[in-house]
Amino acid sequence: MTAQEFDFSDNSHRRYNPLTDSWVLVSPHRAKRPWLGQQEAAYKPNSPAYDPKCYLCPGNNRATGGQNPEYESTYIFPNDYAAVKIEQPPLLQNDSDKDNLKNRLFKVQSVRGNCFVICFSPKHNLTIPQMKESDLVNIINAWQNLNNDLAKEARENHKPFKYLQIFENKGTAMGCSNLHPHGQAWCLESIPSEVSQELKSFGKYKHEHKTDLFADYVKLELEEKRRLVLENESFIVVVPYWAIWPFETMIVSKKKISSVSQFDHTMKKELASILKQLTIKYDNLFETSFPYSMGIHQAPLNAAGDELHNSWFHMHFYPPLLRSATVRKFLVGFELLGEPQRDLTPEQAAEKLRNLDGKTHYLDKL
Questions:
Q1: Contact assessment for residue 212 and residue 205, using Cβ atoms and an 8 Å cutoff
Q2: Keywords on this record (predicted)?
């Protein structure tokens, strides 16, 4: 019997995620199976530039009664349905220092903070890939200003702000409840679990190898180029070696930048450029307005010491579509009970995205 060579594009294997100290199962042969399951409705862009019923359009009343100004660029306001609040009664814990079953197993923390909505554009019918790069620079400016303002509030006015999680849910497939182009920012007095785990991993890697995890990772991806999708002077876009979602990507700064607060004008322009190119590629992949959840991971507000030195600005994109505009990936069964699993290899996904046009949106060709 002749020994066969292991084929990463056909044989099942596990890949380690050093950011979260976890594993993902890769089963590339399963991509060949027929699909008779759930299919999403293909998105057809037919929204007007202004929708009088939209709670986020300029001049309109919001759901709670407030009115939006006639804004002409990026607009931020406190979320009317915030997940966390600044004002709430203290959480009383009796005998919390005692070692008993309840204190071991029923741990709880009070969480205060504030949440914000970031309207990307006054135009109801635009998404990031359809905006001008100058409009995207305005969004990045808004992220930076909000980050700086909340850090100042925490320092000078003792507001309970520790970490600002900036994100966007695009498309109804990712739970977006309003299609007006917008993102959110949740500011908490604690560091969220995903970010906290990354910071621990960065610290562990630096302790063991005397270098930054992302410094080594960027170097390796630029050498191999198999998972590289886009690159400019300041950033790379890769399908991570350990990606879970079929066309998951990550934008990573080439040099060590801890947060958006440190961006100069050149970095803002280059992030705007690479954001536009990536999202155009996403839309062109299946010729649909490609859904995703996107978020920024960066240093905590007013970070110092290890929190500051271990942080490295990067953005995660988690899109759910798998085979077409109507077939999505679900995390169920083994993935919920065992560990995440993917069919398409990261290298195959990167090749598909890399070969797509990142300059011209498919709607502009119609």
A1: yes
A2: Carbohydrate metabolism, Galactose metabolism, Iron, Metal-binding, Nucleotidyltransferase, Transferase, Zinc
Q: How many residues does the chain have?
A: 366
Is 187 a known ligand-binding residue? no
**pTM, rounded to two decimals:** 0.93
Kindly state the percentage of the chain with pLDDT values over 70: 94
Would you state the pLDDT for residue 36? 44
| Domain assignment of residue 198, yes or no | yes
CATH number reported for the structural domain that contains residue 330 in this entry = 3.30.428.10
**Based on the structure, what is the number of domains in the chain?**
1
Both structure tokens of 135: 């409009």
Contact 334, 341 (CB under 8 A): yes
Residue 15 lies in a domain: no
Residue 316 is assigned to a ligand binding site? yes
Integer Rg of the chain from CA: 22
Report the alpha-carbon distance of residue 348 to residue 341 in Å, rounded: 15
- Within a domain: residue 35? no
- Phi then psi for residue 26, to 5 deg, are -110, 120
User: Exposed, middle or buried: residue 65 (CB in 10 Å: 0-12, 13-18, 19+)?
Assistant: exposed
219: enclosing H helix or E strand:
helix 213-224
182 in catalytic set:
yes
Choose the catalytic residue: 13, 29, 158, 182. Answer: 182
Nearest to 126 by CA among 169, 182, 72, 82: 182
Domain range for 281:
45-87+108-357
